[in-house]
Amino acid sequence: MSDKSTETASREAKLGTAPVMAPPVDVYEDDSGILLFADMPGVSKESLSIRVDGDTLLIEGDIEGALGAEAEPAYAEVRGAHYRRSFSLSRELAKDRIDAVLKDGVLRVQIPKAQSTQPRRIEVRVG
Amino acid sequence: MLSHFMHYPTSLFGEMSRLQREMDHLFGGLATPASIRATHWGTFPAVNVGQTRDRVEISVFLPGTRAESIALSFQDGLLTLAGERETEVPDRSDGVEVYLQERFRGPFKRSIALPEDIDAERIAAQYRNGILQIQAPKRESRDPHRIEVR
């Protein structure tokens, strides 16, 4: 192990920060807006955080129940305790109308496009 | 410097360049010893196995999977878990564009070898928040039988 990674690990231990993992996502777009799904198993409504900061959407959550408190780890494929991922939102999206649902560790986020950016029909009057 | 890359935002409307995706994956791997995204499709779902004095505990990371569709069985010391993970995908005919599709979907199967002294009758499992928790208690061991010498 290199000196640099030992340094990082001990600094993380001092800060009390466990490794952070980026959850895998599916992102779709159609005329009405964006649909985003994130796999965040272990996250409950209480430990989930969704924030919009300027043009950035940030989703994070603490993982609970990854392994019992008394259990001695024998084999761990998931060693992180926290998910975090951020996305930059284009101006067309209505950031104040984000709808989010969390079920069975899957976060579903729907972000509509702002009304004014949807194709507007212009009525032509016959003069 | 490492923390800067952990907060690197992914643009939803920008071009999903291969380089951006590769950097995301690379630094995701560096920042975490084991990240869910780093597991190959062949090793979904990820598992954590731990032991206490009297049982083996397993956490299986199975987001969005209906509990009834998970088949869990134990035979000859091997705990096997199988099922199908479905994901919601918008109807493509509505002119839907796919920007990212990273989540695992489809059938899965994994087997975990457990110690010999597991009491099969008392294995229990619960599904909560996308994690399947399994407890496999060890058979109660009898105290060493003391033999008196006359």
- The CA-CA distance between the termini of chain A, in Å, is 80 Å
CATH class of the largest domain in chain B: Mainly Beta
The oligomerization state is: heterodimer
List the uncertain runs of chain B: 1-8, 12-20, 26-41
Biggest sheet strand line-up of chain B = 2-3-9-8
Explain how this protein is built.
- The complex is a heterodimer of chains A (127) and B (150).
- Chain A is built from 1 helix and 9 strands, in the order αβββββββββ.
- A 4-stranded mixed sheet of chain A has the order 1-7-5-4, with no helix packed on it.
- Helix content of chain B is 13%, strand content 35%.
- The longest helix of chain B has 14 residues.
- The radius of gyration of chain B is 22 Å and the shape is rod-shaped.
- The N terminus of chain B is likely disordered.
- Chains A and B meet through strand 1, strand 2, strand 3, strand 6 and strand 7 of A and strand 1, helix 2, strand 2, strand 3 and strand 6 of B.
Task: Give a nutshell description of this structure.
With 127 residues, chain A is mainly β. Chain A has one helix and nine strands. The N and C termini of chain A lie far apart (80 Å).
Topology:
The complex is a heterodimer of chains A (127) and B (150).
Chain A: H1 3-15, E1 20-21, E2 25-30, E3 33-39, E4 48-53, E5 56-62, E6 72-76, E7 82-88, E8 99-103, E9 106-112
Chain B: H1 2-6, E1 10-11, H2 18-31, E2 46-51, E3 55-61, E4 71-75, E5 78-85, E6 97-101, E7 106-113, E8 124-128, E9 131-137
Antiparallel strand pairs in B: 2-3, 3-9, 4-5, 5-7, 8-9
What are the salient characteristics of this protein?
heterodimer, A: 127 residues, mainly beta, Immunoglobulin-like, four-stranded mixed sheet, four-stranded antiparallel sheet, 41% strand, B: 150 residues, 9 strands, rod-shaped, disordered N terminus
